[in-house]
Amino acid sequence: MNNTHIGENIRIYRKRKNITQRELGDKIGKTWEMVSRYERGVSSPSKQINSLADALDVDIKDLFRDPAEKDTEKHYFNRVPLFTYIPENADFKKERSFVYYTAPDWILDIDNKCFVITTDLATIQTDRITKGKLFVSPNSECFKGDLVLKKENEKLVAEELKEERREEIVGKILAEEIAF
Question: What is the C-alpha to C-alpha distance for residues 84 and 151, in angstroms, rounded to an integer?
């Protein structure tokens, strides 16, 4: 096991989640000093690898990748779940997806828990959306006039928010990638 690769990946993913070494340490039951040792490759995180992956919301295998591989950071660190089906209860969590899509940095800066759906999953009720993929943030505040993804009678609807009723909103639509 290459502790340096794992440590560098821990640091990259920790920074991507915008958490401190202390916050990560609290999540895995270790001190910030130990997290620092893991990140520098001084100590082996092998006994903590599962809890580290869970705390960082990544697959274990991503912690073992060589960060020097071409396009590793862009390809693996900007991955968001891509849904081509509506999960049960419209619960769009990473672990419910088997397909991933690369998101631009600016989208992840808004919400690193965002997901992508294809527009054919939703009824489009606005001319501001055409056909392609929608980047959806389940954590962003939604205001009147924002494009949102709503759940209505087990179906998804993409529309402009007319009134601020949060209970049916799945998330705010951050961007559309148009298919040609």
Answer: 16
d(CA 144, CA 46): 48
The radius of gyration of the chain from alpha carbons, rounded to an integer in Å, stands at: 18
Q: Which helix (H) or strand (E) holds 151?
A: strand 147-152
What is the helix, strand, coil percentage profile of the chain, to 5?
Answer: 40, 25, 35
Which domains does the chain show, CATH number per domain?
Answer: 3-75 (1.10.260.40), 78-178 (2.10.109)
CA distances for 15 relative to 6, 36, 77, 108, angstroms: 14, 13, 11, 12
Are 156 and 132 in contact by the 8 Å Cβ rule? The answer is: no
| Distances, alpha carbon 86 to alpha carbons 107, 113, 125, 133, in Å | 22, 17, 18, 14
Task: Report the distance separating Cα 150 and Cα 130, nearest Å.
Answer: 17
Q: For 35-83, how does the pLDDT look when each residue is reduced to its tens digit (9 = 90+)? A: 999 998 899 999 999 999 999 988 888 888 877 664 444 445 677 889 9
**pTM score:** 0.59
